[in-house]
Write a structure and sequence with these properties.
The chain has a single domain (3-218), classed as q2cbj1_9rhob like domain (Jelly Rolls, Sandwich), CATH 2.60.120.620. Helix content is 27%, strand content 20%. It is built from nine helices and ten strands. The strands form two sheets. The chain has a seven-stranded mixed beta sheet. Helix 1 links the parallel strand 1 and strand 2 (23-27). Helix 1 (11-21) crosses helix 5. The protein is globular and about 55 Å long. Bound molecules: 2-oxoglutaric acid and fe (ii) ion. 2-oxoglutaric acid is lined by residues 107, 109, 116, 121, 152, 186-188, 199. Residues 119, 121, 186 line the site of fe (ii) ion (FE2).
């Protein structure tokens, strides 16, 4: 069973459940006003560019956007939400000096979309038997997620071993988050409702991996410069430790002059 928590539950209790089942739902983490603002920011980019990412995996009745800070200034509050960063630190922190953003994606599953194939987000790293989690994802509901409108389908780890058909759906209110490990099987649900199902999924990866979405080419310098230093670092604008991703100009390994 995917455990549901209220946002004020102790993060240690949440991370235990996350390790055990591979996914948790945290209810009502952010205000509806933030969610409405983000939806308003994403509306015209969805209309202008959302179709560009349509393919067999993403779906042909789904609109997507990448490089979210380019489209939605307020999505930074989700990307750097302290609860998510704490859970990411628990999962990834023991295996790297600093973890980093892997990708930032908005997903609008339109009416008529079929269920997405179940997959693991860490499949982009082609090592079959990973000795640690490479990634963690935080999928934020921008609309209420229901069984009818395409709430994400998840295969809890326990069920994956014993009853592979035992898929659960992440039914949750807007402003809630489904947090899952990179190794957890999941996929978008079919949208059988008359309305779109919008979400943001941000992934975080070990700091020594290549980022799934190339932040250096995706984000403009202006957008990166507008972020506080800890978000610039989180986005990957720093070296990992002393000897990876370094460059000669800055011995401190930070992209900006400090
Ligand atoms: O939209 C969703 O619910 C999940 C999408 C997803 O898992 C993916 O595209 O990797
Ligand atoms: Fe996924």
């Amino acid at each position: 069973m995917i455990a549901h928590f209220s946002a004020n539950e102790r993060t240690q209790v949440m991370s235990e459940a996350l390790f055990e089942q591979g996914a948790i739902i945290v209810e009502q983490v952010v205000d509806q006003s933030l969610i409405s603002t983000i939806k308003a920011e994403l509306q015209s980019p969805f209309e202008a560019e959302g179709h560009r990412f349509q393919n067999d995996f993403n779906g042909h009745h789904t609109r997507r956007l990448g490089g979210l800070l380019e489209h939605s200034e307020h999505s930074a509050a989700l990307l750097a939400h302290p609860l998510v960063l704490t859970l990411a630190e628990e999962v990834l922190g023991p295996h790297c000096e600093t973890f980093q953003v892997g990708s930032t994606t908005a997903i609008e599953i339109l009416p008529g979309e079929a269920a997405q194939v179940l997959h693991r987000d860490d499949e982009c790293y082609p090592i079959p038997e990973k000795q640690m989690e490479f990634q963690i994802s935080a999928l934020w509901a921008l609309d209420d997620f229901t069984e009818q409108n395409g709430a994400t389908r998840v295969l809890p780890k326990e069920a994956a071993a014993t009853e592979p058909d035992c898929i659960e759906q992440a039914v949750m209110g807007a402003g809630s988050a489904l947090v899952y490990l990179g190794s957890t099987f999941h996929g978008g649900g079919a949208n059988l409702s008359p309305s779109p199902r919008r979400a943001i999924v941000n992934t975080y990866a070990l700091g020594w991996l290549r980022q799934e979405e190339n932040q250096y080419l995706t984000l403009s310098k202006e957008v990166v410069e507008a972020q506080p230093e800890y978000i610039q670092r989180l986005l990957g604008f720093q070296a990992h430790g002393k000897n990876l991703g370094v460059w000669p100009d800055d011995p401190d390994g930070y992209w900006f002059d400090s």
